[in-house]
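Attaching the record inline, Q. Sequence:
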Amino acid sequence: MILLDNSEQLLALFESLARSIPESLKVYGSVYHINHGNPFNMEVLVDSWPEYQMVIIRPQKQEMTDDMDSYTNVYRIFSKEPQKSQELLKNCEIINWKQRLQIQGLQESLGEGIKAAAFSNSVKVEHSTAVLLVTEDILKLNASNKSKFGSWAETGHPDDDFEREIPNFKYAQLDVSYSGLVNDNWKLGKNERSLRYVKRCIGALPAACMLGPEGAPVAWLTMDPSCEVGMAYSVEKYRKTGNMAQVMVRYKKYLLQKNIPFYISVLEENERSRSSVKAAGFFEASCEWHQWTCYPQNLVPF
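Structure, as predicted:
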């Protein structure tokens, strides 16, 4: 694999990945953050250049010092020929199969190669899937072949009428001091490793909330290193008041104005959340969200 560390190469890759949206979104969003300060110290590998078949985004080596930290040890993959990914993935120089890790992508067909590579390295794999939700703006990148947003960011926003002030509530940037609150209410969090990850996401990436009458967040959204919007939560006391919808609409408008790509994943059975996200202007993409959580034999959870 070839390490891309030249800014011109990374920009060319970013523009090329736009032609494969939505399947390339995980990698496309990661390259966006790499091109804008690289706050999570990620690196880009391709099988060849300038023509490539596979792209892997992974943390730089100094980031992956904790073998149990699957919040950090995350690989994001896009392949033009996912059925042929097995041999590359087997390589321990590319993926550290001795660690607990996650592999994320938007191509179900990657799974066969991932499972085969994991088996050859005596690693257990758990596969999870979710519905991928996107906006028309992100799909327009595919149609135009340009890594640039248009429409709403330039001509206004169709949800302006929906954006309104709610008495005693205030839309605001989510402050990193509330990382503990977010972590305690994140289904995939509630531990020290996840708290470090949450702090890093809120501190480095766009995050928004609605402050309630007591001055604390009652609804919030964050972003991950691949531009996925997540950790969404609304405090039970203030649910069904429109706060989450307000946060979603204003947050989406901010991201569009700043030309920051974004997308959301929701579990298929979570019909309420899917409906809420769709009401905010998202629709289900042609591909699904996939994650393969990998455990070496000595690190398999009980």
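The two ends are 35 Å apart (CA to CA). DSSP finds ten helices and twelve strands in the chain.

More tomorrow.
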